[in-house]
Design brief:
The protein is of the alpha+beta class. The chain is about 20% helix and about 40% strand. The strands form 2 sheets. A 5-stranded antiparallel β-sheet has the order 3-4-7-6-5. It has a two-stranded antiparallel ribbon with strand order 1-2. A hairpin with an 8-residue loop joins strand 5 and strand 6.
Length: about 130
Amino acid sequence: MATVRPDGTPHVVPFVFALARTGDLVRLYWAVDAKPKRSTTLRRIENLRTNPAVEVVVDRYDDDWSSLWWVRLRGRGRVVEDPGERAAAVAALSAKYVPYRSAEPRDTVEAIDVDGVTWWAAGEVRP
């Protein structure tokens, strides 16, 4: 995930997410989880509060290069404030990641409201 620091430079970090679709609306959800961190005030969250622009790249590598693909999602990041949306986001994360089933995120849950998708695939493979 890439966010923008206050000085305009990119800040890129790996992250885990769950994808949620409602009609044409696509959202990615992620959370501050229980893994050890220097702080629960993460740079990426501070970046999103200053500038909500965010991009995410998901890819598949294979030594068979005809199987390569990537998808880039662009959107606006935000902290999930609505309790119903937060519960749905945690449920989506828990369905995808076993650790969330026993250690529900206690801190913030974030959403990326996707407003653009680009992709590339080698050969006939589609992401």
